[in-house]
Amino acid sequence: MQKKILSCVLVFLFAFSICAHADVSEQPYVESVNGLIATEYYSDDLLEEPSETAATVPMTTAPGVKATSVVLMEASTGKILHENNAREKLFPASITKIMTMLLVVEAVDNGKIALSDKVETSEHAASMGGSQIWLKPGETMTVDELLKAAAVGSANDASVALAEYVAGSEEGFVAMMNQRAQELGMEDTTFRNACGLDEDGHMTSARDVAIMARELIRHDTIKKYSTIWMDSLRDGATQLVNTNKLVRYYMGATGLKTGTTDKAGFCLAATAKRDGMELIAVVMHGESSNERFTGGKKLLDYGFANWGIVTPEFDIAQLQDIRVVKGQKQSVQIDVDPIQNQLVKKGGASGVTTELSLDESVQAPVQEGQKVGSVRVLVDGEEAAIYNVCTVESVEKINWRFCFARLFAQFLTL
Question: Which of 97, 148, 245, 298 is catalytic?
């Protein structure tokens, strides 16, 4: 009896100590599962397997998602397949880290920094709180480790450490974030920090989240991290569980990021690829943690059930050299711009055709890259895209020097 009473007292004291030190606006929900720690806010259902699977729930009508704002985008074309309140400005929480990771990955790909670079943690980065890997001031980790912590564990401290390394300060990095947002056409977005903690004016929309997610997944580097389910840091001392449970349970999942705060609610940007088509599902201000994953899954299911990617068939042999009038060469080589895949309704592949239009000749002088025709891509008889056919070399106009040289060359052969 005494042992039971003692056990109850210990449990009470443990629970009291957690509640006494928790601040949901800054501290993560921490759940231990088989010794692994999940650090995403409110992720009480993080390891719970979804009750439905894509195979059992065909989505042929637009899905209903319990969230303030949703968007479903096809990545290669950028076309929005479904939306609801897509332009409403909302707090993004850790979805912010999509832009943070984009700038870091771009810096890596551009050679500005390397994944092997060592980053020293500042006092500021270590003070972030919320979802974190508990970096200490002066502690050193590589860019690779910090990027993993940000992508998998949604670590605020790691994100700010990366921001400071790329730009010298979080303020400088935030300026870069806003500049990149403008370049991408993110008209509803203003960033105030690099990790997503609630701050006045730190806003974005589901449409803008889809835009920056689309840009991020162009970099294969990020999928090295965003597809991780479980991993560790500090030689196994710090365990990571991906805050995006669709990575484990959704077929073809490639990422990407979750986010939760008091003001943002439950957010998700989920990406998945099947049969050559990659989709981006964004759920903003979901009603619950489980609902954001259910909603994201519904959006992805709907997209994969109703659309597909088709590569238009075009015979490159049709691109014969074009005759040059009054040129120093009789003809000029031509080529067509790369023909992109087309997004079509399922079963609509046969309706995708191509149509070539070419000039019979071109007057010299001819400039390299000069347009001489086009290839139209038609979907069910309607123009879906048009690609320029251009010359691949220059051809000068004939002049008296050219004519004299030709005549002299012929004379020598007599």
Answer: 97
Task: Spot the catalytic one: 43, 94, 131, 159.
Answer: 94
Measured at the CA of 66, the angle between CA 65 and CA 69, to 5 degrees, comes to 75
Structure tokens at 59: 């989505």
Rounded CA separation 223/254 (Å): 6
Q: Which of 154, 159, 226, 289 is an active site residue?
A: 154
- Residue 186 has what pLDDT? 98
Are the C-beta atoms of 312 and 77 separated by less than 8 Å? no
pTM of the model: 0.81
Active site residue 226: no
Q: Is 97 a catalytic residue?
A: yes
User: How far is C-alpha 270 from the geometric centre of its chain's CA atoms?
Assistant: 9
Rounded CA-CA distance 167/152 in Å is: 23
Are 289 and 71 a contacting pair, CB within 8 Å? no
**More confident: 293 or 399:** 293
- Per-residue pLDDT at 36: 34
Q: What's the per-residue H, E or C state across the chain?
A: CHHHHHHHHHHHHHHHHHHHHCCCCCCCCCEEECCEEECCCCCCCCCCCCCCCCCCCCCCCCCCCCEEEEEEEECCCCCEEEEECCCCCECCHHHHHHHHHHHHHHHHHCCCCCCCCEEECCHHHHCCCCCCCCCCCCCEEEHHHHHHHHHHHCCHHHHHHHHHHHHCCHHHHHHHHHHHHHHCCCCCCECCCCCCCCCCCCEECHHHHHHHHHHHCCCHHHHHHHCCCEEEEHHHCEEEECCCCHHHHCCCEEEEEEEEECCCEEEEEEEEEECCEEEEEEEEEECCHHHHHHHHHHHHHHHHHHEEEECCCCCHHHCCCEEEECECCCEECEEECCCCCEEEECCCHHHEEEEEEECCEEECCECCCCEEEEEEEEECCEEEEEEEEEECCCECECCHHHHHHHHHHHHHCC
Taking each helix axis from N to C terminus, what angle separates 170-183 and 156-167, rounded to the nearest 10 degrees?
80
pLDDT at 331 over 80: yes
Active site residue 394: no
Set out the domains of the chain in order of their start, with CATH numbers.
Answer: 31-307 (3.40.710.10), 316-401 (2.60.410.10)
